[in-house]
Each structure stands twice: as structure tokens, then as C-alpha cells.
Design goal:
alpha+beta, 305 residues
Length: 305
Amino acid sequence: MAKEQVKTVARQRGFVLPMALVVLSLLTLLATAMYFVSRTSIETSHAAVRSTQAYYFAEAGLNYLAWALNNDADFDSYASAQPHSFSASEPAVPPQAGDVGDYSEWLAYPWYPGPTLVSDQDPLGKSGQILYLDNRPLGQRYLCAESAVRFPNCIDFSLPASQRFRPEMQDISSRLPRYIRLDMKSDGSIVPSIPRLPHRKPAVVGEDVPYNGAIVWLTAGDANRDIEIFPLDPHKPSLYGGLPPESCTGNSLPACPCDKNAPGFATAQACDANTGQWLREYGLVAYAIGYVRGEPAAILRSVIK
């Protein structure tokens, strides 16, 4: 009887050790899984907070741009102490440009709205009515809205969201002409400036892009697409270097897409460089990229005029 009890105890001892190891291993795996789930949840939460912050920074940037259009933002007057890399005066048209909002300046000269070149060494890179308006050819832009069939670099809003081109926001600043950098402080104040050219790649935080804030710029367009305005000069050919509308006759000039004999010339406000059509009017589209801790996390596009 005693021998049987000894054998039973021995068998039980031999069973307890492996069972304890199995349970310990399961607990370790469970603890590890809980750690990674918790870590993933925290990272997801941080990413959501960052994305939300960037969205509101970008939205604030759009609102600021709308304000800047209705007030003289002095972003096209380089007499201030901001870190500009060249000096330029207010636009020549209208004469009272220093006393009116940027929108009024644009209305006085919509035929040549903004820069067509990413450069401060070439006159085309600093000419036009509003120096933070991107009027480069659509095919050369790093971010635009148009048919992806015609311009593969553009976001085609006619396609489902899953099929749209997604630009790498990190590189946009280095590929833009002049834009406004908005540093947004914790007290709600906004400090605007126009960064120097050329912009760095990768962007330098605090020089090219804000630590917390947004970069914003304008272009021509409507709710569905961006437009490149062919630079015309109805006042005199030497004002900004554009061609007079009367020169645009039957594409006799290779660079001129519009025909003055085409319908709409008499009441035209501008020429669409891609369709060759005269435009009676066109809208202003604002872009904004929100930055959190120096990293871009949201893009917004809105028709503001």
C-alpha cells in the first residue's frame, strides 16, 4: 500500500512540472499579446490625434487664406521683415495695391494671376498679381486636381477615393512656387511668412515648413479641377511679360492657345492654357497642408472665391 502511494506521488510530481511550464508559457504569450495590442492601440490613438490636429491646422490655414484675400496680407509686398529671399514691390495693377486686399488686386488683373516658375532668379518666378498663387503648367505641378488621364500627377475627383492618386505630402513644399507658411502657436496666434527659395528637400522644419501649423497657396480652378491661366497682358506687353490678347489669333503664335476670333473673346476674363478656351470667369482654389511636429498629415482643398 505504501509503495502504491509513493508511485502515485511520483507520477503527480512528474505531471505538475510540465503543466506549470505550459501554463507559464501561455501566460507569457498572453502578456506579450496584450502588450502589443496595447502598444498598437496607443499608436493608433496618437495617429488619430495627429491626423485630427493636422486637419484643423489645415482648416485654419484655409480660413486664414480667405482672410488674406480680403485684406492686404502684404505677402506680395516684400518690404516687411519676413525672411524673403528677394525684394519686390506691390503689383503694378491696381495703382492702389498697397491699400486694398489681395482679392482686389487679383480682380484688377486676372489675366496674369501668379508665378509660373519655381524660381526667384527668373522673372517668371516672381511676376503676377499674387505671389502665393500657383499658375504653373498642370503637368508640372506636384499637386493638382484634374483628369488623371490627361495629367497623371493630378488627383482625379471623378474616381473613387481608393483609385485616386495620393501625393507624398512630404515633398510638396520643395516642388511649389512661393507659398505662405503659417506657424500656429499654442495660444491660438498665427505667424505667417513666405519661405526663401529654393525650398529644401527634405523640407527644413522652421525654415520651409512649420513645426505645428500649415502651408497654404492658391490656384485657379473650380470644385472639380484646377486651371492654368495663360499669361496675357491687356495693358502693355512689358508689364509682366505676357502677350496681348489680340496676339492670340488662330494659334498663329505657338505658345498662345486662344483665338481672338473664337466665341467669348469680347467678354473674356482669361484664357485656359489647356483647353484654349476663353473664360468669362474663374474661381480661386485654396490648398492647405497641416503639419504636426514638422510632419505633414492632412491635405485640404477648397474653392474660396
